[in-house]
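We store sequence, tokenised fold; for instance:
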Amino acid sequence: MKVEVKSKKGLRTILSVIVDKKNVQIKMNERLKELQKEVALKGFRPGKVPPEVIKSQFGKSIYGEVVDKILRETTTRAIDEKKLKVAGQPKIDLKQFGEGKDLNYELQIDCLPNVNLKSFDKFKATSYKVKIENKLIEEKLKEIANQNKQFEEKNEKAINGDQVTFDYSATVDGSKFDGSEGKGVQLELGKDLFLKGFDKQLIGVKKNETKTLDATLPSNHPKKELANKKTKFECKILNVKKPITSKIDDKFAKLLGAKDVKDLKSLIEKQISSQYSQALNSITKKEILDQIEKNHQVDLPQNLIDQEIVIMTRNLKPEEKEKHKSNNEKLAKSRIKLGLLLNEYGEKNNLKVSDEEVRNEIQKQIKGMPGQEKLVLEYYQKNPSASQSLKGSLYEEKIIDLIKSKINVVTKEINAKEAEKIIADFNKPNIDTGNSKTTSPVKNKSKIKKNSKK
């Protein structure tokens, strides 16, 4: 094999590769011998078909198969020989091929740039430590109590806010349908979580009463023929319960998995603090990344930019892609540039993420989603790319943590109100894209839920 650099312009290199016709013929003969054991033709015993007969019948397809294999092998060797760092998939342009001829092709390669890191010593960043006031903890505690309110049976008619339990049998045009029966359905009247207008018709019902309700099935019903269909529901009322205010005591705390009220308040404080930390850490990270990007000049391979834009915009409509074309290209360049810089820093400092660290992070996620452990585990088992993506995130986290340890990071103590303002300012929609960047913890629903134990 003969490899020459035909041209080199910027990050693009074109190699000329020639594979001697003798080597092509050797590969061709080897493949014919392999096929001799597999091919069965009329008039020949199994394994005894002459190679020339196989060639006469399947020559073109065999040659194509052999050339394809040679291209895969020789492109890798050519790149290694010239010690090129490839960015993306190289392009092959066949110049000469055919039996009895040298295989001659050109290899167009976009290379990764040489990254020269500057010192980070003069970089500055602000980290935040949030003091969680008792008032906020008490507010969250009341919110949790309201989310986990109890109900007790009543003999009066149902009113808004009551919980009604019922069995139903439904029909469309007098006929049953798949999913037309339900047992032990519970609705908290006023939330309108079943079908539009359904709750209002249950106001006034009593235990053991049967009532027929009219409703319209949703437009997004799984069965298209049932979408927007008027439906009659015959409901047997099993019981009516009224809400009672949850008493916030040790018993209530234990129902939520805490030891007592003091422990529950501590868990709430940790949860709020963790949510703020996650949002504020994103701001600190952005501050560091902005300085890294601003202080470095890196040539970027166009094919990587194009690939990144495709990934970023795959869920956008054509008109949205065109509208934000300039901004998307700018964002793609920023991502690739930072990726190259961070990776170089990680390699220079010999940072790695082990499989064990990935497994530990998956376990951490599993523990953080009670009741959905199996779903989380199956997601990573069925999606190897998700584990790889997680590994990439952990790698980036390690790099950022190392950078933080080397630069001047000032810790600023703030209260929740100040944290909210910082997050809100950071989250102001981008004029070009309308995207927000991180989430306010107080706008998140509390993750503390009642245990399923009775």
About this structure: The radius of gyration is 33 Å. Residues 261-294 form the longest helix (34 residues).
